[in-house]
Amino acid sequence: MLGWVQMKLLYAALLFVSAFCSAQCKSATATLNVKIEASESDKKLLIEKLKEHGCNHGLGIEPTDEGFDYCIAIAEVEKPRMTLTQAGIGSASQLIVSTTVYDANGTKLFDFGRGNRLTRRGFLNASAKEIVKRLRALQGKRNGATLP
Fold first, then answer.
1. Residue 111: phi, psi to the nearest 5?
2. pLDDT digits (tens, 9 = 90+) for 30-51
């Protein structure tokens, strides 16, 4: 049976190994410079999520204000919807985060909205996943390769 000190050392070693392994990701096959137009808090979280999901797919994301490959604009949109309750028919609004991506020349490449998330982090995480998926597809078309 391990003593208290050995258990603490084993626990510390496991934490170190798990932290080291989670920090590893696929090496980036392409690095994209992106400009993000959003509030400061959204920008910070979106950059974090873009880097995380991009890293998992071999795509490096670097935020910049000049010399960018893509411009990502994030906006909140309230979409009205009908509700039906015991009190009768009414209306409510649903928050949607609208994302539009432009190339360096200002040409709109794609846009989409993400709703039905409980937190701001959830909205931005879902948006980052979709952005990375679509940017990978664009990079594949540009390079003449088919991405899995």
1. -150, 155
2. 889 999 999 998 999 999 999 9
